[in-house]
Amino acid sequence: MRLQTVFIDGDQGTTGLQIHERLRGRTDFRLVTLPADARKDARRRAEAINECDIAILCLPDAAAREAVSFIRNPEVRVIDASSAHRTQAEWVYGFPEMAERQAREIARARRVTNPGCYPTGAIALLRPLVEAGLLPRDYPVTAHAISGYSGGGRSAIDEYESNDVTIAAPFKVYGLALEHKHTPEIERYAGLTHRPFFVPAYGAYRQGIVLTVPIELRLLAPGVDGERLHGCLARHYEGARHVDVMPLADARAMAHLDPQVLNGTNDLRLGVFVNAERGQVLLSAVFDNLGKGASGAAVQNLELMLAA
Asked: Which residues belong to any copy of the Semialdehyde dehydrogenase NAD-binding domain (predicted)?
């Protein structure tokens, strides 16, 4: 039986290097990359893409669109780790746990768009609640997230890991124009009818995300409380290999959330923190922005596609 060929375009970027590391030692497919002097050669890239079975694009958005335009072989399948195609209807959204049939759709897809890191957490929390009717589609969603500086790519890594400690701030809130490119992605795949309020930040640590969504119970239907919200998430992700919903008792015992606790994994941990007296609930998601938020998700989607 012929081994399928997997080509990584952009393998020296942060995500590409992480995918390499996660695929190290695998023998169930043949991994192809270009030598250093050919990585920016359009002809060589086009040849490699058209000769492979599955291409993984770890590129800036414009370069990812260019790579897709190179494809002439109708049998080539693509996983795009950029944000170039995330809200396009003809691309399958690469979040296997998002919906009941999502993993099957990814497995048979020709074009898969990897989720963004922040949207992974927000959609994981919101979509099951919206689909169950517990959270109105027009709920005024606010999401705050802090990521390790690797989420800013090579330039941010260079800035924070410079020997000059005066260069990088210990904490940066950004996206202040309220036009972050992940916001439409969250709105679309969470099933919302109004644009969410999204506030991202970077911290002075390399990787890991904590994302939180506050919920006011007075804005929900009568009888919807923290326990029902938790039960909905627990049922949705029951049996999921890479998504875990903390028991309410564990959440009550927690004093803080550590964004780095799942680093190096492809796991996502969801929490529901309830103050019934105040009528408030805090939803949380913790995961590795380079794992479930990027390379881990790409490898998970690759495995689904290889097995199809």
From this structure: 5-106
CA distances 23 to 18, 61, 78, 188, 299, Å, are: 9, 24, 17, 31, 8
7-55 residue pLDDT tens: 999 988 889 999 999 998 899 999 988 888 888 888 999 999 999 999 9
Cα–Cα distance for residue pair 160/206, rounded to 1 Å: 8
Among 52, 58, 117, 232, which one carries the catalytic annotation? Answer: 117
Statement to judge: residues 22 and 154 lie in one domain = no
pLDDT band of 285, cuts 50, 70, 90 = very high
- Domain identity same for 14 and 63: yes
State whether 102 and 144 are in the same domain.
no
Report the domain count for the chain. 2
pTM of the model: 0.95
Give me the amino acid identity at 34: L
Q: Are residues 154 and 62 in the same domain?
A: no
- Residue 258 belongs to what domain range? 117-289
The phi, psi pair for 221, rounded to 5°, reads -65, 150
Q: Going by C-beta distance under 8 Å and a sequence separation of 6 or more, which residues neighbour residue 153? A: 13, 14
Could you tell me if 111 and 149 lie in one domain?
Answer: no
Report the C-alpha gap between 121 and 302 in whole angstroms: 20
